[in-house]
Amino acid sequence: MNISVNPKSVDANLAQTVLPSMHNPVHFRRCEEKAQAKRDSQTPSQVSDGINVKDSTDSEDESFSSSCINNMVCSLQVKKKPRAWMFGADMLKDFEEDPKLCLNAVCALQRQQISAAKSNVGFPSGVLGHRDVLSIRALGEYLMEGDPQHRLRKSVSEVEQQRPDVLSECLNLAIIHYERLFAIYRKEEDPFFGPQ
């Protein structure tokens, strides 16, 4: 059985699903109508060859244009749901692109260490080396700043200003322990760790 699909209709349907307001020119038309009404309300002495020669400043026009543009941008924005990681490679790719995710990854590993210590179970042997355990603990404490739920409290910009080396350390730890982090994600063991 062979099914043929018209790529143009698929693209159009996808675009309408993802960006429905883009194909609905209501916002554009409203802005154009408001701009035209404003131009029509000016007397001929205020307009010379399409240029406004009114004595007042252009701040009114700029604020109007700015609000029109803001309305159009807002209408085009789509709330993006975080995509699910199907494979560890998806997560690794996101680590490379998102420093905040790497910070969250270290916090997730630290939360795992904390819960393992409380339950006296510990990590399975060989999962974390002694050096990594110490690094994760130190970085986790720095990133969580004593948060009672052990959530990330530092922003990427704060870390860049205070301790820029932490970003690369977190990336390295996230990459080294991506299999453990992917298991944490797949088993939903950590409510604060996942795609953003």
Automatic annotation (TrEMBL):
Keywords: Kinase, Transferase
Domain of life the protein comes from: Eukaryota
One annotated GO molecular function: kinase activity
Organism: Olea europaea subsp. europaea
Region (Disordered): 33-65
Keyword Kinase belongs to the record: yes
Annotated protein name in UniProt: G-type lectin S-receptor-like serine/threonine-protein kinase SD1-1
